[in-house]
Structures are given as structure tokens and as C-alpha cells.
Amino acid sequence: MDNRLALEAFAALSQSTRLDVFRLLIKAGDNGMSAGEIGETLGVRQNTMSANLAVLVRAGLIRNLREGRSIRYFADMDGVRGLLAFLMEDCCAGRPELCQPVLDQIACCEHGTSQ
């Protein structure tokens, strides 16, 4: 990931509704959610939700899959990994053991959310 893509991802997450959507889709895991489910859960109108989902898709943080007449959204774990790797790229001046506690804390556990 380069600076431009990282900035686009951060810009996408800098708005409250988009951050809520992203976190909700991370929590939903492999099941994802339809746009209607997301909007209903967060109390956001359909046209507003569509615009926010489009921003997150362009930023590479979520992906979508058409299911008949509806679209299901998922956290794009490749995009998330890319952003986290970008942030941690030069971590700890070549001493990876200093970064390990951070990595352990953000790693999914057996009973936690997975991709």
C-alpha cells in the first residue's frame, strides 16, 4: 500500500457513519450484511448508506457481492491487512519483538471475529 491509498482509507474512516459501517462489517465476518441490514442496524437512510458504502469500497476497506437484486457487503480483509501492514511497516527499528504485543492484541482469537 502506498501513501495515496492509505490516505484514501483514512479519509473514508474519518466520517462517523463510515467508521460505524466498517466496524459493523468487521464484526459480521464472513456472513457480511446487505445494505438494508446495515442501514437498519445503524439507523441510516438508504441513499445516505449507498453513498457511504461506495466510499468504503473505493478505499478498498469493504467489498460487495451481488445476490440477485440485493448487494451484500463484507470487510475486505486484504485491504485491512494492507493498511495495517502500511502502518507497521517500519515498526520498532528492526526489533519485531517490540511490535508483537500490538500484533497479538489485534489478531483474531479462536472465538473472536474472523475474516
Report on the architecture of this protein.
The chain has about 120 residues and is of the alpha+beta class. It has one domain: Arc Repressor Mutant, subunit A (Orthogonal Bundle). The chain is built from six helices and three strands, in the order H-H-E-H-H-E-E-H-H. The protein has helices at about 5-15, 15-30, 35-40, 45-60, 75-90, 95-105, and strands spanning about 35, 60-65, 70-75. Helix 1 (about 5-15) packs antiparallel against helix 4 (about 45-60), helix 2 packs across helix 4 (about 45-60) and helix 3 packs across helix 4 (about 45-60). Mean pLDDT is about 90; it is low at about 110-115.
Report the CATH superfamily: Winged helix-like DNA-binding domain superfamily/Winged helix DNA-binding domain
Report the helical percentage: 55-70%
What does the average pLDDT come to? 88
Global shape: elongated
Properties at a glance:
alpha+beta, Arc Repressor Mutant, subunit A, 3-stranded antiparallel β-sheet, 6 helices, disordered C terminus
Compact overview of the structure:
This protein has six helices and three strands. The chain is of the alpha+beta class and 115 residues long. It has one domain: Arc Repressor Mutant, subunit A (Orthogonal Bundle), CATH 1.10.10.10.
What does the secondary structure layout of this molecule look like, with pairings?
Layout: H1 3-13, H2 16-28, E1 33-34, H3 35-42, H4 46-58, E2 62-67, E3 70-75, H5 77-88, H6 96-106
Antiparallel strand pairs: 1-3, 2-3
